[in-house]
Amino acid sequence: MPYYGNRLGIADADLPMEYDVGAIEQIVATPYRGGAHVVFPARKIRFVRGAIVVFRAGKEEAPAYGELTVEHEGGLLTSPLGADGELELEGLEVGTFQGRVVYAKGRCAITIVVPDVPGVIIDLGTMRCDGEK
Asked: 1 CB contacts (<8 Å, ≥6 apart)?
């Protein structure tokens, strides 16, 4: 109906599981004999997993129960670190990013490289950063 709010929606179940659609419904009022272009943006979900070890005083140690903060285009992403330095981030795209690890014994800077590989879960393996003195 023209001039009134018309509810338009999509069935998110029709999209592949690796895509996230923010809003699945929009209300649109069109002019008489007019139309509307409605966009439902979808983004590919990507999880980045790995572990961090810190090289400090000639030894490697896990930054147990610390926190990783990564700068990217959308702002900052954070991940708590597990007992062995395990991490998981959602929303990190392909590219090279600078991060900062803060844990009980100190902090360190780390470079994270996310490769362009298919899949929802990307395993980066074990990454190393040098502890600050």
From this structure: none
- For the cut 70, the answer to whether the pLDDT of residue 99 exceeds it is yes
Beta-bridged to residue 98, according to DSSP, are 111
Distance CA(133)–CA(100), nearest Å, equals 15
Tell me whether strands 86-90 and 25-28 are parallel, antiparallel or unpaired.
unpaired
Going by C-alpha positions, the residue among 76, 74, 71 that lies closest to residue 43 is 74
Does residue 41 contact residue 12 with C-beta atoms inside 8 Å? no
For residue 21, name the pLDDT band (cuts at 50, 70, 90): confident
Inform me whether the pLDDT recorded for 38 exceeds 70. Answer: yes
Distance CA 127, CA 113 (A): 10
Is residue 126 within 8 Å of residue 133, measured between CB atoms?
A: no
Using only C-alpha atoms, what is the Rg of the chain? 21
**Residues 23-54: b if buried by 16+ CB within 10 A, e if exposed:** eeeeeeeeeeeeeeeeeeeeeeebebebbbbb
* Dihedral sign from CA coordinates of 46, 113, 122, 67: negative
